[in-house]
Every structure is written in C-alpha cells, then in structure tokens.
Design a protein that fits this description.
By secondary structure, this protein is an alpha/beta fold. It has 2 domains: about 250 residues, Type I PLP-dependent aspartate aminotransferase-like (Major domain) (Aspartate Aminotransferase, domain 2, 3-Layer(aba) Sandwich); about 130 residues, Aspartate Aminotransferase, domain 1, CATH 3.90.1150. It has 15 helices and 12 strands. The protein has a 7-stranded mixed β-sheet with strand order 2-8-7-6-5-3-4, sandwiched between helices. It has a 5-stranded mixed β-sheet with strand order 1-11-12-10-9. Strand 5, helix 11 and strand 6 form a beta-alpha-beta unit. Helix 6 packs parallel to helix 13 and helix 7 packs across helix 9. The structure holds pyridoxal-5'-phosphate. Pyridoxal-5'-phosphate (PLP) binds next to helix 7.
Length: about 525
C-alpha cells in the first residue's frame, strides 16, 4: 500500500469560495487539515490495520531480543533519508519496533503494572491526538476542560469526597504524588508561618514525609525534588502482609515531635507496587487527624477498586486530603491517564502561577467563565487524556471496568493457591490485589546459589519468549513477581509459567552445584 500526496476533494462544507487547490508540496500535504482529511482517514486505518494484525497473531509477549540486537536495527535507520511514503515507513517500523515490542495484551505478560487497554479508550486516543486540544487553558480546550472536570468530580464522588473537592489529570502516579507532596509541604509551611514568619527555605530540612517500607519510590524522589532531601523520608515498618503498621506510624510521628522535626505528610499506599497490599486507611486517618498531618493516599494501583465489587477495601480513602489514581493501571486505559484528586480544591492554589500571556490574573473573566486547568497543574501544555476514560465510561459503564479488575483479582487468588500448595515455591504473602511475589525454594541448595538460580530463572524465561515476569527483592532476597492485569490470563497460564520457572531454576542449580552437592538438583518439574 502506498499513499501518494493525492487529489483532494473540495472542502466538506461550502465556503462560497472556489475549491481549495491541491497542495503540491510534500511537506504541506503532511499537515492534517481540510486538504488531507481523507488521507488522515486512510492512514489511521492503515496504522490500525498493522496493529490489529500484530495483536491477532503475536504468539508471545516478547521475543527476548536484547538491547544489542535492537540497537543495531534502530541505529541502521538513516534519519537523513526520509522514505516519503507512510507505507514504507510502517514497513520499516515492523522491523525496528513491532517485531520485538513487548505486548501487554498477551496473557503471558505478567511483568509490570501494564494493562491491556480497552477499545473505547483507543477511540478516545484517536480523537484526542488528532484534534489535539490542550488542557491548560479554556481558550485551547473549551469543552475538553469541562469533560475533564466532570471526570474529576466523578472520581471524587467514588472516593467519597464532598462538595469542595477538585483535582486535575496528570501524566502518571509519580507526578500525582509529587503534586500531592507539594501541596502538603506548602500547607504545612503556611501553618508554620501563621505561627511566626519562617521562610520555606529555612524549614525544608526539618520537614518529614512518612510512608511504609513498601511505598512507591516516587515519594522519595518527590521529597528530594521539593527540596526536603531524600533523608526527609521516614520509612514506617509493615506487618507481615506488607501493610503499614499504624502503631509504628504513631511512634514515628511522636519521635518527630520529640526531635523538633515537622511531619508534613503521611503517604498511605492503597495497592503497593510489589505486594498489592493496602495500608489500614481508617487507622492511618485517625492518626493523621490526631497529629494534624496531611494524609495522602497513593492509589495508583488500587484505584480500580473504586469501580469493583471489592470497593470496601478502600474504606477510609474518603478521609484523605489527596488521592493519586492511575487510570492507566487498573482502569485499562492507555498510558498516560492519571489524576490527583483533593478533598479541598483550594489547596490546588499551590500549583497556580499567573503568566500574562496565558492565565493572567487581570484578564477580567472569572474562573467560572474561563476555567483554566493550568491553574491546578504542574504541566502547561497537557493532553486531553480524560477523553479516553470518558468514552470508556460512556461505552462500558463503570461496572464494566470494575468487572475486568475483579477478574484479575480472582485470578490472583487462584495463583496464590497454586503457589502456596506447591513445595517448589515459597510465596511472600496472600494478595489483596493482583501481584504474587515468590521464589523457587530449592531446598538444600546453598543460599547464594539459590538466589542466583532465581535470578537466572527469570532471565531464561524472558529470553525464551515464553512469558514476561518481574523481579523484586523481599526480605533481602531476590524474588520473582507476577503482576496480573490481564483478565484473559488463566490459572493454566500461571501453572505453566511456574513449571518453566522451576525447570530453569533447577537446571541452573544443577549445573552450578558443587559435585556431590545437592542431590535433588537433577529433579525437574513435577
Ligand atoms: C505505578 C505506581 C506509581 C507511579 O505511577 P506512574 O504512573 O508510573 O508514574 C506510584 N505509586 C504506586 C503505588 C504505583 O504502583
């Protein structure tokens, strides 16, 4: 298929003038405008056709290609020599990208928190990139701003926030957490100032952020970015199910008071990245209100519970000051789609800056007439990501999305039983959401060798193309992790992947044990 710069019909609706002449020059023909509207349709279909063929035929989540392999392919492309033909560019892309991409829709992709995406969201993606609204100001977005605001309200309602709530879409959970901590820091500073004018710079090093040992690393990064330093983060101990210990939290807060440091926020996690564990939100909310500390709930992963039949697991989230939600994790949305939602919309002023050219303080219009989302955001130019969720809810309804998440929670429960009953493995904790962290037990094997065998098992599995799983560290030792976000994956997929992992680990241990050592090493899978 090839798409020459082609004849162009007249404008779709009469302008009363003569038809616009066909653009002759190649570069102008590449602009999406009235001249190229038909080309746009054809090209979008051609791209979708390539994707559809891949999705329909891909047999494994990843080929196992190395960075070396792919660097050669990508490096060979001569950017100084344009192909001047979209079909040729797509052919080339088949080789440099599609052939060795990582396919999250494949049931044996169980690596990170990447979800298969739903069709209505892809409709949204097509529309939003072509119309290209920017959500910073009303005059660049119009109705798109109102759609985003409706979805923030919808999310806030699910959370249980009241009338004063507000929020904004962000690029992801990391940015949402950063913004939450910015607001918490500035609120704490304002309170200190009210008690006698200290400058922010003077108190930054005394500020503290508390999160559990299973909390997300973006909390520490945000604290550093906000000038408080990595040292400002206090890691609160967890119980054996990897949930923040409320007593340990209270003890740390008392210690802060005693030391004269200023706790500015407690970050509770609703769905830790490794274990899917949910911190005890009601107890943490009690502690935060007793100590008058900002409570942020990082529900980047667990937000899918808002539409699930397991909504009760998020009880207490309505008492937070701010909540991070990643629709691109448990709402089956394409990257990026995330939001920060706050109980009291007034705190978003900490992200406000008035630029004369954009959202000047004095342009005379009220925020109600001219709602500028840039006043609430760390970003300026910003995608209309909300459209994807909008179309998803309009097509599937919230119950449809929730049912997808419920399916993966059910699958994780089955996976837990498999692992727990299988003597080849030790599994860290029963899942609340949809991750399983485990390792090959390799009884009788030297601990160092067992660690190496576990690491090897994952690499060999991925290199074989059979499946993609993740790794992490738990209790100081390397573990493997299945992150289940595909409702089409089955118990059988998990069982077969576990067989492969056990075989690779056994094989490695057998090859590397000292002669006369571990006698069970030759034993393969069941
Ligand atoms: C994924 C994740 C984040 C980061 O979100 P991004 O969208 O990747 O920036 C933050 N917190 C938790 C608990 C997460 O799982």
């Amino acid at each position: 298929m090839s798409f020459p710069a082609r004849h162009v019909p007249g404008p779709p609706h009469g302008t009363g003038r003569t038809p616009v002449p066909a653009p002759e020059r190649h570069h102008l023909a590449q602009l999406l405008d009235r001249h190229s509207a038909e080309d746009y349709r054809d090209l979008t279909c051609a791209a979708a056709d390539r994707v559809a063929r891949r999705i329909a035929t891909v047999e494994r989540p990843f080929t196992g290609a190395t960075a070396e392999d792919l660097r050669a392919k990508v490096g060979k492309v001569d950017l100084a020599e344009p192909l001047r033909d979209p079909a040729a560019a797509l052919d080339e892309l088949e080789r440099v990208y599609f052939d060795d991409a990582v396919y999250f829709h494949h049931p044996r992709y169980m690596g990170h928190l990447n979800c298969p995406v739903v069709l209505p969201a892809l409709l949204g993606e097509t529309v939003l990139s072509a119309v290209n609204s920017s959500l910073d100001t009303w005059d660049q977005s119009a109705g798109a701003t109102l759609i985003e605001q409706r979805l923030i309200d919808w999310t806030a309602q699910r959370i249980g926030f009241g009338e004063t709530t507000d929020g904004v879409f962000t690029s992801g959970g990391s940015q949402s957490n950063l913004q939450a901590l910015l607001m918490a820091r500035n609120e704490a500073h304002e309170r200190m100032r009210a008690n006698g004018g200290v400058r922010l710079a003077e108190v930054l090093s005394r500020m503290r952020v508390l999160t559990s040992e299973a909390g997300h690393f973006s909390v520490a990064k945000s604290a550093a970015l906000l000038g408080m330093g990595y040292e400002s983060v206090i890691t609160v101990a967890c119980d054996e199910r990897r949930r923040m210990h409320p007593d340990a939290l209270a003890a740390e807060l008392r210690r802060c008071r005693a030391e004269g440091t200023v706790p500015i926020a407690v970050v509770a996690t609703a769905g830790t990245t490794d274990f899917g564990s949910i911190d005890p939100l009601p107890a943490i909310a009690d502690t935060c209100s007793r100590h008058r500390v900002w409570m942020h709930v990082d529900a980047a992963y667990g937000c899918g519970l808002l539409v699930s039949r397991h909504r009760h697991l998020l009880s207490g989230v309505e008492r937070a000051d701010s909540v991070t939600v990643d629709f691109h994790k448990s709402f089956f949305q394409p990257v990026s789609s995330s939001a920060i939602v706050v109980r009291d919309g007034a705190v978003l002023r900490h992200a406000t800056y008035h630029a004369d050219y954009l959202n000047s303080r004095t342009d005379g219009s009220t925020p109600r007439l001219s709602p500028n989302q840039v006043d609430k955001s760390l970003q300026t130019t910003r995608r209309f990501d909300a459209l994807k969720l909008w179309l998803t809810l309009r097509v599937m309804g919230s119950d449809g999305v929730g049912a997808l998440f419920d399916d993966v929670l059910d699958l994780a429960a089955q996976g837990w039983v498999l692992l727990d009953e299988d003597p080849r493995f030790t599994v860290v904790t029963r899942p609340t959401l949809s991750t399983l962290v485990f390792r090959c037990a390799l009884p009788g094997t030297d601990p160092g060798l067992a660690d190496a065998a576990n690491r090897y098992a994952r690499e060999a599995l991925i290199a074989s193309g059979c499946a993609v799983v993740a790794r992490t560290t738990a209790d100081g030792r390397p573990h493997l992790k299945l992150t289940l976000l595909n409702p089409r994956a089955t118990r059988n997929d998990i069982a077969e992947i576990l067989d492969h992992i056990a075989a690779h680990a056994d094989d490695y241990a057998a090859r590397h044990s000292a002669p006369g050592g571990r006698d069970g090493a030759a034993k393969r899978t069941r």
